[in-house]
From TrEMBL:
Designated name of the protein: 3-dehydroquinate dehydratase
Annotated source species: Kineosporia corallincola
High-level lineage: Bacteria, Bacillati, Actinomycetota, Actinomycetes, Kineosporiales
Classification via SUPFAM superfamilies: Type II 3-dehydroquinate dehydratase (SSF52304)
Subunit annotation: Homododecamer.
InterPro entries, sorted: DHquinase_II, DHquinase_II_CS, DHquinase_II_sf
Reactions performed catalytically: 3-dehydroquinate = 3-dehydroshikimate + H2O
Family to which the UniProt record says this protein belongs: Belongs to the type-II 3-dehydroquinase family.
Keywords: Amino-acid biosynthesis, Aromatic amino acid biosynthesis, Lyase
Record function comment: Catalyzes a trans-dehydration via an enolate intermediate.
Length: 146
């Protein structure tokens, strides 16, 4: 079975209570359940994780490469400045694996500092602005490419 890690960066553990007008009312547990259900329908084994720690995120991405797992990644604030996360993500696509960058909101419609993603240049694709549905679209994209 194809494995997909759904990785979430800083503050996404606060979904449902942090700026619900921007990020929605679903909690991380709601998001995980939806991803796991979508994955099962697509024949994917999905594991959802969240961290506020950059080094932990990098370790998870390295582990995905080593295990041959595809990645759906919401890098959150790491999107805009973490070249270390970007370099780890580059290893995913160079290994022939799929990496989909996903964002609940559309960063291009928000503050100027959010307009730049250092991750998108090494991602297979980017989905932004569709809330939880963006993750489900990303899983469909992984299934179509694996």
């Amino acid at each position: 079975m194809t494995t997909v890690l759904v990785l979430n960066g800083p503050n996404l553990g606060r979904l449902g209570v942090r700026e619900p007008d921007v990020y929605g009312h679903d909690t991380l547990a709601d998001l995980a359940k939806a991803c796991e259900e979508q994955g099962a329908e697509l024949g994917l084994e999905v594991e959802v994780r969240q961290t506020d720690d950059e080094s932990e995120m990098i370790g998870w991405v390295h582990g995905a490469v080593d295990a041959g797992s595809h990645v759906v990644l919401n890098p959150a604030a790491f999107t805009h400045y973490s070249y270390a996360v970007r370099d780890a993500c580059a290893m995913v696509t160079k290994a022939g694996l799929v990496l989909i960058e996903v964002h609940l909101s559309n960063p291009a419609t928000r503050e100027v500092f959010r307009h730049t993603s250092v991750v998108s240049g090494v991602a297979t694709g980017t989905i932004a602005g569709f809330g939880r549905e963006g993750y489900l679209l990303a899983l469909r994209a992984v299934a179509a490419r694996s």
